[in-house]
Design goal:
The protein has 10 helices and 5 strands. The protein is α/β, with parallel strands linked by helices. It has a 5-stranded mixed β-sheet. The chain is globular and about 55 Å long. The structure holds zinc ion. Zinc ion (ZN) binds next to helix 5.
Length: 210
Amino acid sequence: MISYEQIFENNQRWVRDKRSTDTDFFQKLALDQNPDYLYIGCSDSRVTAEEMMGASPGEIFVHRNIGNLVVSIDVNVMSVINYAVKILKVKHVVVCGHYRCGGVTAAMTPEDLGILNPWLRNIRDVYRLHRDELNSIEDQNKRLDRLVELNVKEQCINVIKTAAVQQQYLHTGYPIVHGWVMDINTGQLIDLNINFEKELKGIQEIYRLI
Ligand SMILES: [Zn+2]
């Protein structure tokens, strides 16, 4: 495990490395940010947004919480989406879950988890929506992995429900919403190939806000 002192030594090395390839790296970084991507992922320490995507500072606007949830009354995630879509004008919004997610496992554990109860209930709601499919999967780990995928899809739909996304897409053709799962067993990113146009049309029957 990394020691507290080590972090600052590593930081000094990182600064030197960045400057050695581009002497003005930090001067340029300080000017502004213009990311094309909003990444909404899990807080899990093993799933590092920029590192697994090979992205540099300035390229990804990031929001992380337990279970990569997009909850309509969470001022935090809603502010992030609004700012990213309307001000930064990102072209892609990604919701990224991961197999072996502790949040998803905890949500399916019959136990009082205190303050986590209302948060994780959102994952239980995803289970309820897809109960028949999930109950038909015998293997416990495979069922949880499938719940991870379905949770990502439902959170993508929650992103599409926002007025910011619906308005911006109508006017500019962006952002496109994507669902990914990071396979923690292999490190590979899996694109769930969510059909954004189809999902948008489908949910606007009820959730149209423009
Ligand atoms: Zn997780």
